[in-house]
Amino acid sequence: MDDCEDLFEYASGTAVGPSAGWAPHKTLNDSKRLIRTYMSNRDCFAIELSGTGKVIGNVGLFKTSLSDGMRSQKARELGFSLNPSFWGNGYATEAALAVLDYGFTHLMLDTVWCGHFDFNLGSKNVCLKLGFVYSFECKEHYPFLEHRDVTEIFYFLTREKYLDDKKKRYLK
């Protein structure tokens, strides 16, 4: 668990966990549990700062209830979180783009969806930069968000759109 301290560094604050859908970590054991969960999902990866070995975030493709509702398609949810010290440098977009490429070209997914809370503008910007298209929103009650009702906004990206966007990126 060499990466545990790096994860705890950003997961224990209030800027990341609540925006990503989980409560801030209170102890290193919380971070160890999350790492174990991520390690059990072979489609989840650490985001490591090049040349340093420092873990600054995570990104992955997850089977979730919304994906289960799309049984006619091979679908996953894109999830990511990033240490706030590294926000605004394009790391989340770069890592998510690599995972999308893996999902659409190796796992042969039909659809990837992504969601964010209405107050999480950073994740919204990443979704839009990646080419996700708005689909729907709903209100949910979250105990770890001070028992507030928040609006969750969902986007979808199809393999066809991803591959078209990829061609356009390389033609620039």
> Which of globular, elongated, flat, extended, rod-shaped describes the shape?
globular
DSSP summary, beta strand count: 6
Regarding CATH, which class?
A: Alpha Beta
How are the strands ordered across the major sheet? 1-2-3-4-6-5
| Total DSSP helices | 7
Tell me the CATH superfamily.
Gcn5-related N-acetyltransferase (GNAT)
Summarize the main sheet. Answer: 6 strands, mixed
| CATH architecture heading | 3-Layer(aba) Sandwich
**CATH fold annotation:** Aminopeptidase
Number of domains: 1
Structure description:
This protein has 172 residues and is α+β, with helices and mostly antiparallel strands. It has one domain (4-171): Gcn5-related N-acetyltransferase (GNAT) (Aminopeptidase, 3-Layer(aba) Sandwich), CATH 3.40.630. The protein is 38% helix and 28% strand. It has helices at 4-11, 17-20, 28-39, 65-68, 91-105, 121-129, 159-171; strands at residues 44-48, 55-62, 75-82, 111-117, 133-142, 148-158. The chain is globular. The relative contact order is 0.13. The model has no long low-confidence stretch (mean pLDDT 88).
List keywords for this structure.
Aminopeptidase, 172 residues, 6 strands, alpha+beta, six-stranded mixed β-sheet, single chain
SSE layout and pairings?
Layout: H1 4-11, H2 17-20, H3 28-39, E1 44-48, E2 55-62, H4 65-68, E3 75-82, H5 91-105, E4 111-117, H6 121-129, E5 133-142, E6 148-158, H7 159-171
Parallel strand pairs: 3-4
Antiparallel strand pairs: 1-2, 2-3, 4-6, 5-6
